[in-house]
Amino acid sequence: MKILVVEDQARLAQLVKQGLTERSYTVTAVRTCAAARDALCEDNFDLIILDLGLPDGDGLDLLREWRKSGFNEPVLILSARDAVQDRIKGLDLGADDYLSKPFSLEELLARVRSQLRRYSDVKETVLESRGIKLDLLHHTAHVQGQQIELTRREFALLEIFMQTPGRILTRTFISEKIWASHFDVDTNLLDVYMSRLRTKLETTLGKPVFKTVRGVGYQLL
Ligand code: CA
Asked: Which of 131, 90, 99 is nearest to 5 (CA)?
């Protein structure tokens, strides 16, 4: 597994690199946006760990640029900025996870494992997680073996959560996927749909399925 670490603080970069290398990951560490661009063009990575404040630019711009040009490697943002707005911005731009500094190496390693696991089983025609099974070919949904009826929208909504279980999806991200881009995310339409989907799933599953992340979005537990 190859990991690109973009971090300009030498000590932190060294610590992260060492921690990952000890767990048998192959690590390339760079300190600038320019070096990160070069590295990503030259090599394929399974995961990118990205700091936001870099000497020659902003990590968020780098992320935007990558997603625009079709690089879909999972990105874990590492940043001292823990304001909700920055977090939302990063997730909206296509980051997969976000860790605020300071963090423990153990937590970083856990997040890395979770990202790598998540991406290894995407692109299946049957998505299965948390007792929910979604057949994308036949458009059927089962909860603990029991078939449940979902509308097309509810199915689409559940599908985007099942593609990356555990990832926090922002309201903007969800709305753009489900209602195309001009939808006003301030309306409560999304909440209405989420609430219906929640009821259908939780009635059968008997436990919470989604977590509401206040001011941000939702997460499939
Ligand atoms: Ca920095």
From this structure: 99
Q: What is the pLDDT of residues 70-81, one digit of tens each?
A: 787 899 999 886
Distance 138 CA to ligand 1 centre (A): 47
Which residues, other chains included, contact 204 with Cβ-Cβ below 8 Å and sequence gap of 6+?
A: 143, 144, 146, 148
Q: Structure pTM?
A: 0.60
Rounded to the nearest whole angstrom, what is the distance from the C-alpha of residue 46 to the centroid of ligand 1?
22
User: Domain 126-220 falls in which CATH fold?
Assistant: Arc Repressor Mutant, subunit A (1.10.10)
Ion ligand 1 — residues with CB < 5 Å:
8, 51, 53
Domain ranges in the chain? 2-120, 126-220
* Topology (CATH level 3) of domain 2-120: Rossmann fold (3.40.50)
